[in-house]
Design goal:
With about 200 residues, the chain is an alpha+beta fold. The chain is built from seven helices and seven strands. It is elongated.
């Protein structure tokens, strides 16, 4: 990912927190020279210095088979916002876009049945903890049937690239104008972009 020096998002803990917050990501692999992508909810786990991504495909998805033991790119992104030139001091300016994005690379490793069951419990606990009691009460036959329909995997991240394009190259006055503009937008995604811009100033 192209990352100018002033757009570096290099605080590892903040990057992990971003990935955990915007965990519905896109996994990209290559099959016969063609990029293939699937959108999945990921668990983002830190184990000592390692960042581990865990998720599962529907078994019927061809990418589920093709990605195992292959290099993958997982893209985490959101929020983002259009930036109008009305926020700039000089008239000779053009529109742009502010955004945050994380690209995580690593090799997909297949999880065995025991780890698959653990992943499902962890996923439920992460996204809807109250459902865990209902899941536990389901019959083993039903749960086994559900698990047979998925392929669970993990990726130990070996290359993490993070970018925060948040008008860092603009003047203080222009940044404040952009923050004010986005903070009063109706779109919550634009408001979140403003919040990330404010956080840079703390």
């Amino acid at each position: 990912m192209y990352i100018p020096s002033f757009n570096k998002f290099d605080n590892k803990q903040e990057v992990i927190a971003f990935m955990q917050r915007y965990s519905f990501a896109t996994i990209v692999t290559v099959k016969d020279g063609l990029p293939v992508a699937t959108h999945l909810p990921f668990l983002v786990v830190q184990n000592d210095d390692k960042i581990i991504l865990k998720a599962h495909f529907a078994k019927a998805n061809p990418q589920a088979k093709d990605c195992i033991d292959q290099k993958a790119l997982v893209i985490f992104t959101e929020p983002h916002a259009y930036i109008s030139p009305k926020n700039y001091e000089k008239e000779e300016n053009v529109p742009t876009w502010n955004y945050l994005a994380v690209h995580a690379y690593g090799t997909c490793t297949l999880l065995d049945d025991e780890d698959k069951a653990g992943l499902l419990k962890d996923t439920i606990s992460n996204f809807e903890k109250d459902y865990l009691k209902q899941w536990d009460a389901l019959t083993d036959d039903y749960k086994q049937k559900m698990m047979k329909g998925i392929v669970a995997f993990e990726i130990v991240v070996d290359d993490l690239q993070a970018k925060a394009k948040l008008s860092q190259n603009r003047s203080e006055k222009e940044q404040e104008s952009i923050i004010n503009d986005l903070s009063h937008a109706q779109n919550t995604v634009e408001q979140e972009t403003a919040n990330y811009m404010k956080a840079l100033k703390r």
